[in-house]
What we know:
- Chain B: It comes from Propylenella binzhouense.
- Chain B: InterPro entries: AAA+_ATPase (IPR003593), ABC_transporter-like_ATP-bd (IPR003439), ABC_transporter-like_CS (IPR017871), BCAA_Transport_ATP-bd_LivF (IPR052156), P-loop_NTPase (IPR027417).
- Chain B: Belongs to the ABC transporter superfamily.
- Chain B: This is ABC transporter ATP-binding protein.
- The structure holds 2 protein chains of 2 kinds.
- Chain A is mainly alpha-helical.
- In chain A, 73% of the residues lie in helices and 3% in strands.
- Chain A has 11 helices and 2 strands; from the N terminus they run H-H-H-H-E-E-H-H-H-H-H-H-H.
- Chain A has helices at 2-32, 39-57, 65-84, 93-116, 141-163, 165-175, 177-182, 187-212, 220-233, 239-260, 262-279, and strands at residues 131-134, 137-140.
- In chain A, strand 1 (131-134) and strand 2 (137-140) form a beta hairpin.
- The N and C termini of chain A lie far apart (47 Å).
- The longest helix of chain B has 16 residues, at 171-186.
- Chain B has helices at 44-52, 74-80, 97-104, 111-124, 126-130, 141-155, 171-186, 198-203, 222-227, 229-243; strands at residues 5-13, 19-28, 33-37, 57-64, 67-68, 82-85, 159-163, 190-194, 207-212, 215-221.
- In chain B, the strands form 2 sheets. A 6-stranded mixed beta sheet of chain B has the order 6-7-8-3-9-10, sandwiched between helices. A 4-stranded antiparallel beta sheet of chain B has the order 2-1-4-5, covered by helices on one side.
- Chain B is α/β, with parallel strands linked by helices.
- Chain B has a domain at 90-156.
- Chain B is globular and about 45 Å long.
- In chain B, helix 7 (171-186) links the parallel strand 7 (159-163) and strand 8.
- The interface between A and B is medium-sized, with 18 and 25 residues.
- The complex binds adenosine-5'-triphosphate and magnesium ion.
Amino acid sequence: xxxxxxxxxxGLALGGVYALMASGLTLIFGVMRIVNLAHPIMILxxxxxSYWLFTLYGIDPILSMPVAALVLFVxxxxxYKLVFAREAASAKYSEMTVLLTFALAMSFDxxxxxxFSNTQRVTTPSYGTQAIFLGDLFIPTAQLYAGIxxxxxxxxxxxxxxxxxxxxxxxxxxxxxxxxxxxxxxVEFVSLVxxxxxxxxxxxxxxxxxxxxxxxxxxxxxxxxxxMSLVVLGGMGKLMGTIVAALLLSVIAAFVGxxxxxxxxTMTFFLALFVMLLVRPQGLFGDRIEEA
Amino acid sequence: MPELLEVSDVVAGYGRGxxxxxxxxxxxxxxxxxxxxxxNGAGKSTLMKAxxxxxxxxxxxxxxxxxxxxxxxxxxxLRKGICxxxxxxxxxxxxxxRENLRMGGxxxxxxxxxxxxxxxxxxxxxxxxxxxxxxAGTMSGGQQQMLAMARTLIVEPQIVMLDEPSLGLAPQIVQxxxxxxxxxxxxxMTILLVEQNAIAGLKHSDWGTVLDLGRTLFEGPAPEVxxxxxxxxxxxxxxxxxxx
Lengths: 292, 244
Ligand SMILES: Nc1ncnc2c1ncn2[C@@H]1O[C@H](COP(=O)(O)OP(=O)(O)OP(=O)(O)O)[C@@H](O)[C@H]1O
Ligand SMILES: [Mg+2]
């Protein structure tokens, strides 16, 4: 019994981090129909920001989250202006953005590799090696903190989307871009800022990733498939769906990892994706396949 | 009467495609219901999209209250006071009725005013009040059209453009829809209406403008346009040709 609870809690904590990693991706897809293959490398960029702030100045990675988020927000604004804004009018927009984001992923991978080399790194705050015991429950502190931080950020994001004026604009643009324009939303501006917010979320996730996983620039290739599977399972661009998919799959993966071995645990994501595409291609929460 | 909206020699089309509007001109006078009719593909919806700023104007100009508005973005044109309810109704399917109404007031920066007007609309349309927390996408076609039209009350624009509001609605719902349209007009809004059903449209309008092939064919007071023999020719001639 305690084993099951243990695996469940760890699965949820990690699921929270995955949900945060995928939330920016799904937000960007929802508003702009951009499949951002560069999202995972942006997460790693955030991880490097926190890693260096910790290594050079001893700043706790959880405290440096806002810095990583801000750096990535600015990178997002610049990239959107330079790369995507001019493509918005193109008829082959969706196809173009896949190529562009792939090129971006390659470039940032190369850049980070050249700057920091592909050695394994991990940020090592004091709680990185500690654990909390709740009765018989054993929870590594780092994962617990990372999970809690993720849930706080996601909760904030959902409140922001639900209740603020800009949140209304983002949701409206996601659901019906032309209608949003007719209600007075400047959708190009919303796209720009949303791209920034999406990358800021990646940056924040990166800070957490930096102390729960060991990382190196090329690691982002592993994550692309996992994050994409979460976005597809969640119903393409549906934030709630993506979050539920992340939690669900993480918990399942944790059980699979515990009882069947860790090789199988990553497989969970792809297997779930495969089954979902066969059975319910619109995802858990999608109601129809939207044309891009 | 002074002109509220003036479209002069406008040429417009989609992307790099051919021109759909071929030098169209038309004026809209304040306080009227002006009905635009014409056969399928005449460019009625295209004209409305061009006025709303959803489609770039290639040449010619559009003036609103004397000021050029062609080249402005849709959100800027809405802020000037022109509200467009397209054929697809422009609702947000996964937002509740209440949220849709609030989205209608997106340009109002005064939260108290937005809340007051949202309440006033819900007061006026009990069906919407009843369904305030239902997702717009799950309502019937008539209710969706009612929501789309009621939503324009929140911004209180000077002109409301309605593209085929009766599309797909049962006859008694169509009647109700025309009543809402007159209510908007009685609130001081000028209505530009596109109707597939020319007779019903003209009967509920003050002025009629007939479009074909991206131009204004002729116009006049609605009762006169209604009995104009050229109308018969335009519609019957087409269907006779199609049947042949
Ligand atoms: N999105 C689009 N892209 C390309 N061409 C379009 C588009 N929408 C309309 N057209 C073309 O523009 C022409 C005029 O269409 P429009 O929708 O303005 O006609 P309409 O008068 O509103 O007709 P209806 O009574 O059928 O609604 C048609 O030939 C149509 O094929
Ligand atoms: Mg039309």
